[in-house]
Amino acid sequence: MHHPPPLCATLSLTAMLCACAPQEIQQQVNGSLQVNSTTVAAGAIPDKCACKGPGISPQISWTDPPPGTQSFALIMDDKDAPVGHLHRHYFVHWLAFDMPADKRELTEGLPRQPLPDGTQQGKNDVGAFGYSGPCPDAGSTHHYAITVYALDTKLGLPVGTKGRQLLKAIDGRILARGQIVGTYGK
């Protein structure tokens, strides 16, 4: 005779699975930004921005945000990673936040440290600060989403902030967002 698992075991398993689920933005975002890159030409990330090259950050620009924007945040993640940090099915390669409201671009090859204008770079899933270039398994091509968020506040998060912490902090504070997707394979 088959007996279903006890309710407490079912709830414990559900809690463990939810704890490993990726953090997502819960708020509805109506505003949009146009995100562009001179580096990610025709949707392809060049070797110079990946593990086959020096791994410099790409140039990213965006359009004017809606009124009330106090800062910007950026997250670049690999949507095709089989298992990312904390068993998420994406992997954060770059995060930046507290970018000034009048900023419209991150130049190519940023240093992996806070910028003079107050822009902070967090800790990526490689465990390093700033940008970490794509490096998928041999024979595979992955899609890397670079999302820029216009926020109604300056976050004031510490330099060691990680992707999940940044997503939690911006949820409910987003006025607009935009995204560009680039592919990279080796």
Describe the overall structure.
It is a single chain. The chain is 12% helix and 28% strand. The protein has a single domain, classed as Phosphatidylethanolamine-binding Protein. The relative contact order is 0.24. It has helices at 7-20, 163-170, and strands at 31-32, 35-36, 60-62, 71-78, 91-100, 105-106, 120-121, 141-151, 174-185. The protein has a 6-stranded mixed sheet, with helices on one face. The chain has 186 residues and is α+β, with helices and mostly antiparallel strands. Mean pLDDT is 85; it is low at 2-22. The longest helix is centred in the N-terminal third of the chain and has 14 residues, at 7-20.
How are the secondary structure elements laid out?
Blueprint lengths: L6 H14 L10 E2 L2 E2 L23 E3 L8 E8 L12 E10 L4 E2 L13 E2 L19 E11 L11 H8 L3 E12 L1
Parallel strand pairs: 1-9
Antiparallel strand pairs: 2-3, 3-6, 4-5, 4-8, 5-7, 8-9
Number of helices: 2
Please identify, by name, the CATH architecture. Alpha-Beta Complex
Strand content: 25-35%
* Rounded average pLDDT: 85
List low-confidence stretches.
Answer: 2-22
Number of domains: 1
| CATH topology call | Phosphatidylethanolamine-binding Protein
Helix-strand pattern: HEEEEEEEEHE
Oligomer state equals single chain
Outline:
With 186 residues, this protein is α+β, with helices and mostly antiparallel strands.
List the main descriptive attributes of the protein structure presented here.
disordered N terminus, single chain, 2 helices
